[in-house]
Amino acid sequence: MLKIEEMAHGEMLALLLRAAYGHLACARDNRPYVVPMNYTFDLQFIYFFTTEGTKTEMIEANNAVCFQVEEFTDPLHWRSVMVTGQAERLERPADVEHAMQLITGHNPTLAPALNETKIGAWTRLNNVVIYRLRPDAIYGRKTA
């Protein structure tokens, strides 16, 4: 039988620092939406960025989000951390610059994905939006 146990707080923070991507969950009008996201974590906030589109519309309607990361070796060896909180859109130039430095420092090759299905509808095609998520709660599980 597979034994699953809670992760220590330090283990959860280490996984958030180490992982390269996670899954962002948001909801609007009782409809959930989950997407993979590149991100960075600075022990206080999770920072992620995107272009204007479905995610930004959903977060503007309801900024309560969940972010999940995992390390998966095989079905018997994995770790998963889930963070809940409020996503805050960064507007101040100093905040945006700080977040971009952290994001590109964590992974210099990152660039927001451009969803071709949205191009025709976008009037703000190249508008990058940066959010930070201050964790309200962090949960972690792992196989023993």
Characterization of the model:
The structure is a single chain. The protein is built from three helices and eight strands, in the order βαββββαββαβ. It is an alpha+beta fold. The chain is 22% helix and 47% strand. It has a single domain (4-143), classed as Roll (Pnp Oxidase, Chain A). The protein has helices spanning 9-18, 54-61, 93-106, and strands spanning 4-6, 21-28, 31-38, 40-41, 46-51, 64-74, 77-89, 128-143. Strands 1, 2, 3, 4, 5, 6, 7 and 8 form an eight-stranded antiparallel β-sheet that branches. A hairpin with a 2-residue loop joins strand 6 (64-74) and strand 7 (77-89).
Short description:
The chain has 144 residues and is an alpha+beta fold. It has one domain: Electron Transport, Fmn-binding Protein, Chain A (Pnp Oxidase, Chain A), CATH 2.30.110.10. It has helices spanning 9-18, 54-61, 93-106, and strands at residues 4-6, 21-28, 31-38, 40-41, 46-51, 64-74, 77-89, 128-143.
Integer average pLDDT: 88
End-to-end CA span: 11 Å
CATH topology: Pnp Oxidase, Chain A
CATH architecture: Roll
The low-confidence runs, each spanning 5 or more residues with pLDDT under 50, are: 113-117, 121-125
The first-level CATH class name: Mainly Beta
